[in-house]
Amino acid sequence: MNASSPSSAQFVVRSSRRPRLPAAALAPWLVAALAGGALTPDAAAQLHVSYRDCDIGGTVDVVMTAPVGTLYATIASLTEGPTCFGPKHLVGCLDVDFAFIDLTLTIPSWFQVMPAPGTVVETLDIDNDPLLDGLVANVQMTSLVNGKFTEKSNLCKVIFGTPDSWHHSLAPLIGDPAAIPAIELDDGRIALFGAAGATGEACEAWEPWRQVSSALASLATGRGGHTVTKLQDGRVLVCGGADVNLVVLGSAELYDPLTDSWTATGAMTSVRAGHTASLLPDGRVLIVGGTTDVSDPLIGATSALKTTEFYDPVTNSFAAGPNVQRAHVAHFATTLATGDVLIGGGGSYTTIFGIRIPAIDNHAQAFQIATGTWTAEVAMKADRAAPSAVLLADGRVLLAGGIGGSLTNPTNLASSETFDPVTAKWTSRGAMSGGRSGMPLLVLPGTNKVLVAGGATGTSVTTPVPTDLVELFDPATNTFAVVAPLPEARAGSAAILLGSNHAALFGGVGGVPTGVAIYHD
Q1: Which residues of the chain have pLDDT under 50?
Q2: Which among 26, 43, 175, 508 is least surrounded, fewest beta carbons within 10 Å?
Q3: Is 297 left (phi over 0), alpha (psi -120 to 50) or beta?
Q4: Exposed e or buried b for every residue in 190-212, given b needs 16+ CB within 10 A?
Q5: Quick one: which of 174, 173, 191 has its CA closest to 182?
Q6: For residues 3, 124, 78 and 444, what is the CA-based torsion angle, rounded to 10 degrees?
Q7: pLDDT of 264-297, one tens digit each?
Q8: What does the pLDDT look like over 345-379, one tens digit per residue?
């Protein structure tokens, strides 16, 4: 790791050095900073340090946040502290040692007065040295309070990895969530709500900078098969789902991360599970479909809903919306670049002589923000239940895998297709290396490729067989390529992007339900 100074190879060699830090070492910089008059040294600062990406042979972004005008120092080490100096020393107690204090004094942004707007990102080069794989560097900020560097930030754990590789988080999850999304809170923590614990009530937040998880306030009503949607003000809406007795719920709860507390909202207009919930540009949430019965996949399909509703955060209530053309459960919903919402596929039914016959659907339609209505249906290239979908950087929607065949004779699909919102047409694309469903899709901004990780194989809807298969979809060629497999097979994992080319998978059904796997592209 270097910034016109020590290389990452030197960084490792110096791990054996533990020099003491004399007060005079910081004096010239301290005097210069105080003379500038740009800071209030006696004000306790709110410091935070994190990182984005960390690939051997590439770079790492160290992100430092503090109030504007704060004199701070950022310190890296290979071992944790605490490191404490005497009462007359300029520095108090920190969670890092001072073996690499020369980095602090060499990299300009690591010892300075915080400029506006209060965040500095330092990009450091990392040597292409395989010995760095798995290295953990500890990084912490400290700032001047009452004449001493005693205020400290969180401890950030920077893990070095080779491109196209996976590693486990430094600590597992507390619970074993599956089939729920991961939500990034405004403070950078990754939250997992429900589908874990004795009744599905457990919630937790994973800290990317320390790679550890901590418990959050539990849901009032445990649930699975629910939706989790982050609102524009940072609160999180949890809707519907089913309890441990398979009773489908019409309740919803609102999480406030500032107080770590839940409050009840008004009831939904219908009980529903296996639905979708999409945040609209005006701040409302569009809720579509789902089922009123989860006792059996066939009954779930014949109990699927055509109804929609809106949640309004201003009134904290739900109101009925326009119906979709046909019922959908376990379908996909993707917000387009325009803010419109495309939904399609899933379990559904046809009616013959008044009898509902379960079916897997291949119809899609979009909710138009401008008119508040649904477009006409467009046929997809394949019938798909529980497919995975993601918005590509070029505005198209990639739809991959899912369950095809019939609900009485299901098969996992390897095929994919893309939807072009300009032409409103679906086009068949390359196939994955294996059929699967219930896998996350994540666009990696560094390359615009799509990470397709894990998923369910086999021919059973109720007892899926997890896979460790991982592929990258290239939107330039519309094809998939196999990359490094997961450390263990898993399906129904929550997933979220970390930086521009890293991703994290949480829980799921498989070998390590409490595990967190992190990918380096």
Answers
A1: 1-44
A2: 43
A3: alpha
A4: bbbbbbbbebbbbbbbbbbbbbb
A5: 191
A6: 180
A7: 999 999 999 999 999 999 999 999 999 999 999 9
A8: 999 999 999 999 999 999 999 999 999 999 999 99
Q: Are 328 and 345 in contact (CB under 8 A)?
A: yes
- The first and second tokens of residue 190, run together, are 């990754």
For residue 228, count CB atoms less than 10 angstroms from its CB and return exposed for 0-12, middle for 13-18, buried for 19 or more: buried
For the entire predicted model, the pTM comes to 0.89
Q: Report the distance separating Cα 318 and Cα 117, nearest Å.
A: 38
Residues in a beta bridge with 520 = 165, 502
Question: DSSP of 404-435, one letter per residue?
Answer: EE-SSSEEE---EEEEETTTTEEEEEPPPSS-
Whole-angstrom distance, CA of residue 271 vs CA of residue 290: 9
What secondary structure does DSSP assign to 179-244, as a single string?
S---EE-TTS-EEEESS-SSSS--EEEEETTTTEEEEEPPPSS--BS-EEEE-TTS-EEEE--B-T
Residue 347 token pair: 């379990």
Whether the CB-CB separation of 467 and 455 falls below 8 Å is answered with yes
Q: Residue 154 is encoded by which pair of tokens?
A: 């969180």
The pLDDT score that the predictor gives to residue 25 is 39
Interior angle at CA 38, CA 32 and CA 41, nearest 5: 80
